[in-house]
Amino acid sequence: MSDLETFRAEARAWLEENCPAEMRTPAKGDEDVCWGGRNFVFQSEAQKLWLERCVAKGYTVPDWPKAYGGAGLSPQETKVLRQEMAKLGCRSPLNSFGIWMLGPALLKFGTEEQKVHYMGQIARGEIRWCQGYSEPGSGSDLVSMQTFGEDKGDHWVVNGQKIWTSYADKADWIFCLVRTDKTNKYQGISFLLFDMETPGVTTKPIKLISGNSPFCETFFDNVVVPKHQIVGELNRGWDVAKYLLGHEREMISGMGGDGGVTSIGAAMKAVLTEEPVLRAQMALFDVENLTFRAHGERFMDEWKTGKAHPAYSNLMKYVGTELNKKRNELVMSIGGTQALEWESERSNGGSKARNWLRTKANSIEGGTSEVMLNVVSKRILEMPGA
Amino acid sequence: MAMTLNDDQNMLRESARDFMASEAPVTHFRKFRDMGCKDGFSHGLWKQFAEMGFTGILIPEAEGGMGMGQIEAGIVLEEIGRNLSPSPFLTTSVAAVEALKLADKAMRDRWFPGILAGETVIGIAIEEGVKHRPEKIACVAERSGNGFRLTGQKQFVVQGTSSDMLIVAARTAGAVGETDGLTLFAVDKDAAGLSMEATRLVDSAMAAHVKLDGVQVNADAVIGDVDGGWAVLSKMLDAGRVGAAAEMVGVGTGAMDMTFDYLKTRKQFDRVIGEFQALQHRAAHLYGEMEGARSIVLKAQSLMDEGHAKAELYVAAAKAKAGLACNLAVREGVQMHGGIGMTDEYDIGLYMKRDRGLNEFFGDAYYHADRVATMNGY
Questions:
Q1: What's the pTM?
Q2: What is the mean pLDDT of chain B?
């Protein structure tokens, strides 16, 4: 047996012994997902146990180094672990912007002290993070952002406003882009970390078309941030942000817990059989879906071996988000009038309709489809012009 | 396996790329088209394919071939597609060889040496209507003497009149629409009662309408099992499908690259037209489609090579996706070339014609999307 197959057997045995039965069923909506953090209330004893066991094993962040709370697994081992988790239907023990976004940025740009401190907190699910990027006047043109940190010697005083801050009202800390030099557009931004309980920080949820409020407006009024809470160099925060956006694009494009290859068509057979045109749309969607999963697999294999173009994640983000929107359009069409229900228990609180509306943001957040196509065209295809 | 090519496969790609570009580029295709060649391909080039080892790429090493898999065959096919190189490779070295690998030793010994030498061409006689419906085969093979008598007709037999042998699917039992009861036969081109009418297709390939008027074959002409031909047929068709998909990745990529070069050089309104965002977005979208097609084709090839249970599903998805993406590439190609895209002098139109032929070969995108739906349980 190869080392990888030995690992597979061990991982499977560990999961079978340690993952509680309740954690082998899909989460019932967003409230049923473990996000960790100071104020998190566990929904069940099983959820708490599953997190604790994974933390002890390093499996909340299996591919992070052991010194920073991970299990030190290789990319291949991590893939195997995820495959085994998918086979058993294990939930992710911990969802977190810290894991998906800040952690990888710290690993690349952080000091050793920051890695041990912040990544450890993330791995243990102690601190829930939010991301302060967009501003009311700076969406696709993010680099025009104005939130300003005035240099006061050993600290900055931050004033300004962020928008579309995911779960800012629930987060403990924020990683935030702050302008530290007004004379230099790209090289005048710093990447700061600070506590959301710092005096002067306020949040206001934004109600979306889905009826939910996953995003906030976040206001900074003379917020004091100590100098050691910067990641990377002064005024070079844009490098960190760009690196991190790459991760966000991968995350958004990689949606679908089981690898996403399972067709949703079989469960809808009764409707599809009676409506051949709808069935045909579903069939073409399945072709696109299988294609996207194979594409993602190829991209990851090329990425790991350094063969992928650095801008390729922009393409995956475009294709993946457009596909997810199409999937939800089909779910709504197949669901018919039942999918229109907004509040009933029968409709699980209108989950189909709300998810459908939520996915419309996929091709806006983290870089719009149009911006992704610009980047692909210019950087990969090397089309001329500004 | 990893979804990247290994060193050996990259070397094969380089040699296939160099070979096609120097020995069988689009000018080669034009030359044979313009002379009205009755075969639609060069026998000399087919010999050169043999010298490169391509013709026996799927034939086992023990029988003189290279013993490689669908990934390697696809590497050669992609370069064929990129250069529109006319050859019997897809029908003979991919589809026919996959069928013959399931035949008995005497039959393999009869046909493999000629294929390895680049002397033999084999036609695939499956289609009976204008669309691909293999389970609806109605051509009949009745037991007669020590063998069978074949009666019926076949269409779209690519390079049929250039073939030394036809692989004919016929019904030995069961009703039209059933997959049981089919049998595959190796029918010699000179068999009494076999007649062919050659016809030129839109992409200048030659195909034949075949009549089988009581063609007598011996029992040893059967490939695989009597009444159990579906197993052989499925393997042959899937190899042909994934092969055609790989060739379409080449055709689509060739058309796309040519179009992107044009966008970077053609000037209108005092600007290179590639500066216009309306074209940039379409170019980027097309690139994504072709990259997706390349990925699903590689996935399907590797699952076939592994003998994976899901291979059939992925082959269907790959043929469908490659067909859709390649079709987009040639349509965008002609449109973005503007007026000159409509001229015979420019190559882009030739890619459009080749795409059409390959899309129909062994089932179009809609046929295969339908199969994906069925295999996915709805």
A1: 0.91
A2: 97
Question: Which pLDDT does position A229 carry in this prediction?
Answer: 97
Contacts of B281 in chain A (CB under 8 A): 370, 373-374, 377
Yes or no, beta carbons of B288 and A319 under 8 Å apart: yes
Domain A254-380, CATH 1.10.10 — does that match?
A: no
Q: Where are the domains of chain A?
A: 3-95, 129-237, 254-380
Of B2, B274, B314, the CB nearest to A383: B274
For the cut 50, the answer to whether the pLDDT of residue A255 exceeds it is no
Distances in Å between the Cα of A157 and the Cα atoms of A110, A168, A311 are: 22, 20, 35
pLDDT average, residue stretch A253-279:
80
Of A288, A298, A381, the CB nearest to B283: A381
The model's confidence at residue A249, banded by pLDDT at 50, 70 and 90, is low
Quote the longest CA-to-CA distance of chain A.
71
Domain A3-95 belongs in CATH node 1.10.260: no
C-beta atoms of A376 and B321 within 8 A? no
Calculate mean pLDDT across residues A303-319. 90
For residues A107 and A97, give the distance between their C-alpha atoms in angstroms, rounded to a whole number: 14
User: What ipTM was assigned to the predicted interfaces of this complex?
Assistant: 0.96
pLDDT digits (tens, 9 = 90+) for B27-66: 999 999 999 989 999 999 999 999 999 999 999 999 999 9
Mean pLDDT of A186-196: 97
Question: What is the tens place of the pLDDT at every residue in A8-32?
Answer: 999 999 999 999 999 998 887 777 8
Same fold? A129-237, A254-380: no
Distance CA A52, CA A70 (A): 13
Domains plus CATH for chain B?
7-120 (1.10.540.10), 124-228 (2.40.110.10), 231-375 (1.20.140.10)
Q: Which of B281, B292, B376 sits opposite A266 (nearest CB)?
A: B376
CATH of A129-237 given 3.40.50.2300, 2.40.30.10, 2.30.42.10, 2.40.110.10: 2.40.110.10
